[in-house]
Amino acid sequence: MRKPTDPTSHQEGPKDPTPIPWDALEAWEDPIPMQDTKTLHHMVRRSKNTPHSTTGPHTTPRGTPKTPHHARRALPIAPRRNPISHQEGPYDPHGHHEGAPKLPHHATRDTKTRRHTKRGPKNAPHNTTAAPQPPPTGPPPAPGPVTELRAPKPPLLALSPPHGGRCGRTRGGGAELSRAHRPHKAGAAHAAPRGGGRKRGGGSVGLGGSRGRGMELGWLLWGAAVLLLLHLLMELSPAVNFVLRIGFYYVLCIVCSGLTAPVCLLVNGGRTVKNMRIIKTVVKSFKYFFGLRFEVKGLENFDVEGPAIIVSNHQSILDMMGLMEVLPDGCVQVGKKELMYAGTVGLITYLGGVIFINRKSTTSAKMVMAEVAKTMTADNVKVWVYPEGTRNCTGDLLPFKKGAFHLAVQAQVPVIPVVYSSFTTFYNPKKNLFTSGKIKVEVLPPIETKGLTSDDVSDLTDRCYNIMRETLFRLSGRSGEGKDSS
Ligand SMILES: CCCCCCCCCCCCCCCCC(=O)SCCNC(=O)CCNC(=O)[C@H](O)C(C)(C)COP(=O)(O)OP(=O)(O)OC[C@H]1O[C@@H](n2cnc3c(N)ncnc32)[C@H](O)[C@@H]1OP(=O)(O)O
Ligand SMILES: CCCCCCCC/C=C\CCCCCCCC(=O)OC[C@@H](O)COP(=O)(O)O
C-alpha cells in the first residue's frame, strides 16, 4: 500500500546501475544452519505472501532476472499457511458475534454477583437515604436488560469525581450537566450528598472545588505530570536519562525495522543489498532524535573502481547511525550471526544483505570470508567490516582481527579505512552518559592490496591499525598520542 507513495521506492528501481547477483548472497547464507534461519525465513514468507499471491511466484515485481529464482529458494512461498491470516480472518467476525450477545449476559452476571456481595446491600440503603429515589415504575425485580445494566451504575458513578464535585458545588451547573448527560444523573444525584455533604460538614468546600476541577482534567494532568516527572528524573538522574534514551533508541530501531521490512520486500522483493538504501534513508533520520551531528570528510575516497573492503572503528550500537551517514551504495556489512535473531532488527539486517558470521567458530567465519572474497568482485559490492570484532567505547582501538585484511588480499581489492571520533564525551554506558554530541567522520584514502599475498596480511593489518588510531586521536582531540603505538 505504501509502495507508490514511498519516495525511496521511486529512487530504487531505475537508478541502481548494477544489481547484485543473488548467487553471492546465497553463498553468504551458507554457513548459517538452515535450522537457525527457519524462524526468519518464516517471517519473511509471511510478509511476502501478499505480493506473491497477486503477481504469481515467478514474477517478483522489480526483481532482477535472478531474483525470483532466489526468492523462491530463500523465501519459499508458503502454501497459504499464514498463521496471522488464519487467525485474523475467522477470528475477527467471530469475535464480534461472540462479543455482542455476551455483553448483556456478562453484565447480568456481574449485576447478580454484585447483588450478592456485601457492597450491594451497603450501597442500597446509602443510596436511598442520600438522595430521593424516583418512585418505582415497574415490578422491582424485573430483570430486563436495561434494568440490569443500570443497576450497578449508581455505585460506579457515585465514585465519578467530576459529576459529584459539580453537583455538590453549583446546582445550576450540575443541573445543566445532568440534562446533557441523562444517564449520569442518577449517579450525580447520589454523589452530591455524599461528597458535597461530607465536605460541607468538614468545612473544606474550597478544597473540594479545586479537587473537582482538577479531576475533570484528570487525564491531562496525569499525562503532564508523568512527562514532567520523566523530564525531572532525566535531569536529576543520569541513569534514568541513559536508560530512557537508549531504550528509545532500541524502540526506534525495532519499530522502524518492522515498518521498513515490508517496504524492502515490496520494493526489492527480498534479501538484497539494494535494501540498504531504504534502510539508510530511515536510519539517517535517527540522529535528530538524539541531538547527534555528523561532520564528514573524505567521502570521495569511496569512489574507487570496483569493490573494496571498508574497515572502521566500532564503539557502540549507535554506530549504525554513523554507518548509514556515509554508507556507499552497494555495500554490505559483516555482522555477528546473533543479530539475525534480534526480532525485526534481525529481519531488516537479513533483508539488507548483511553477511552473518559465527564468531565462535573461526573455521566457519573464515569459510564465509573466503566465499565473500570470491564473489564480491563478480558482484561488485563493497564489504564493511569492523576489524575490532566487538564494540569498544574507550576512546582507543582494540587490536585488529585479520579477517578483513585476508579478505582484501584474497580478493585483491583496496582497503578503505573510516574513522569515527571518540563517543566518550557524550556516550559512556559505564557512566550512564548519553547526551547530544558531534561526531567527526573521516574516510581515509584507499590502501592498495594488488600483488600482496597472505604473508603480507599482518603488515597490512598493522599499517591500517596505525593510520586509524592516529586519525581517531586526532579527530577526538588527542593529537600525537597514536603515533608511537603499533
Ligand atoms: C530501519 C531501521 C533499522 C534499524 C536497525 C539498523 C540495522 C542496520 C543494518 C546494519 C547492520 C550492521 C551490522 C554491524 C554488525 C557489527 C558486528 O557484528 S561486529 C562483530 C562481527 N564482525 C567481526 O567479527 C569482523 C572482524 N573479525 C574478523 O575478521 C575475525 O578475524 C574472524 C574472521 C571473525 C575470525 O575471528 P577469530 O575466530 O577470532 O579468529 P582470528 O584470531 O581473527 O584469526 C585466527 C587465525 O585465522 C586467520 N584468519 C582470519 N581470517 C582469515 C581468513 N579470512 N582467511 C584466512 N585466514 C584467516 C588469522 O590470521 C589468524 O591466524 P594468525 O596466524 O594468528 O594470523
Ligand atoms: C525476539 C528477540 C528480540 C530481541 C530484541 C533485540 C532488539 C535489538 C534492537 C535494537 C538494537 C539496534 C541495534 C542495531 C544494530 C546494532 C549492531 C551492533 O552494533 O551490534 C553489535 C555487534 O556489532 C558487536 O556486538 P558485541 O559488542 O560483541 O556484543
Automatic annotation (TrEMBL):
Protein origin, superkingdom: Eukaryota
Name recorded for this polypeptide: 1-acyl-sn-glycerol-3-phosphate acyltransferase
UniProt-listed Enzyme Commission number(s): 2.3.1.51
Region (Disordered): 1-207
Biased amino acid composition, Polar residues: 1-11
Protein task: Converts 1-acyl-sn-glycerol-3-phosphate (lysophosphatidic acid or LPA) into 1,2-diacyl-sn-glycerol-3-phosphate (phosphatidic acid or PA) by incorporating an acyl moiety at the sn-2 position of the glycerol backbone.
Domain Phospholipid/glycerol acyltransferase: from-to ranges: 308-423
GO BP term, example: phosphatidic acid biosynthetic process
Signal peptide: none
Compositional bias per record (Low complexity), positions renumbered to this chain: 50-66
Biased composition (Pro residues): 132-144
Species annotation: Pavo cristatus
The keyword Transmembrane helix is annotated on this UniProt entry: yes
One GO term describing the cellular component: membrane
Reactions catalysed, as given in the entry: 1-hexadecanoyl-sn-glycero-3-phosphate + (9Z)-octadecenoyl-CoA = 1-hexadecanoyl-2-(9Z-octadecenoyl)-sn-glycero-3-phosphate + CoA; 1-tetradecanoyl-sn-glycerol 3-phosphate + (9Z)-octadecenoyl-CoA = 1-tetradecanoyl-2-(9Z)-octadecenoyl-sn-glycero-3-phosphate + CoA; 1-(9Z-octadecenoyl)-sn-glycero-3-phosphate + (9Z,12Z)-octadecadienoyl-CoA = 1-(9Z)-octadecenoyl-2-(9Z,12Z)-octadecadienoyl-sn-glycero-3-phosphate + CoA; 1-(9Z,12Z,15Z)-octadecatrienoyl-sn-glycero-3-phosphate + (9Z)-octadecenoyl-CoA = 1-(9Z,12Z,15Z)-octadecatrienoyl-2-(9Z)-octadecenoyl-sn-glycero-3-phosphate + CoA
Chain intervals with Gly residues compositional bias: 165-175
